[in-house]
Amino acid sequence: MQDRAKVLVTGSSGNLGRFVLSALDFTPYARNFCIATLSRRAAAARRDRHYRIDLTDREALTECLATFRPTKIIHLAALSSPSEAHKHPQLARAVNVDAVETIAAYAERAGARLMMTSSDYVFDGTLGRPYRETDAAEPQTVYGRSKLAAEAAVLRSGGVVARLSLLHEEGVCATTLQSLIHDARLARRPVSIAADETRSPLRFSDAASALVRLAFLPDRGVFHVSGPERLSPFDIVTRELRATAHVLPVCRIGRDRLMPPARPADVSLDSSKLRAACPDLHFARVAPPVAERAIGQTALDGVAD
After folding, report:
1. Regarding predicted confidence, which is higher, 75 or 258?
2. Which domains does the chain show, CATH number per domain?
């Protein structure tokens, strides 16, 4: 009897990790593999095995890989806040680069499939159109530089990199955007959102579906995983609020008023390559504009410049 594939999911207790675990349960391969999870926190869901370690502990990470011996690795864990990476560059290096190099070295030795999530912040935001995988990556932040260095390690090992755009999802409050939307709906405070930063917002659930597909495809290299629209954070929040006829004022601000580092202007992504490889994947738009929900013009009255 052939041994079951062994899938290791890092960052399993995070928002994206929980969606990926759920997506794995619904793949056609679900009965043919066992899943181990790795995170600093307790297991997000009951799995075959859970490793509670810190990625900066290289010895513990190496022992985990040697013990479980995964044949597929879905590496989601990262220091993903640009502001935190800016404040703690050494930690960003340890988590986002050094740990990936350890995992990539194992994958190359063991012939394991490694799929790592990266970021649209590897680009400088000056191109003026959605970035393709072949466009030059020139990160302007500590976070972006750390992710690009991690990409190089994964690609050297023969793995696949999935660059994600801004993630959001209704009901997931542990993100900046959803926390602002939640506060606004509870009328806690007016919110101020950057209107001069363009992304390709993507729902966590859609991202998870794509990542699981990429983990099982034979393809290597870089894939962009992004939503079908180019929107600013301001656009996203106002659409979500308008969808429920909420009228709390939302004010536009420039991205220069956010915490450092400076955000790139337009890092929207072109995901044509992914759509060609997986034509059955369909990514949802952000909540449709109010006219499509038949809410009426009154929902626009509370939106202030």
Report:
1. 75
2. 5-168+202-225 (3.40.50.720), 176-197+230-268+285-304 (3.90.25)
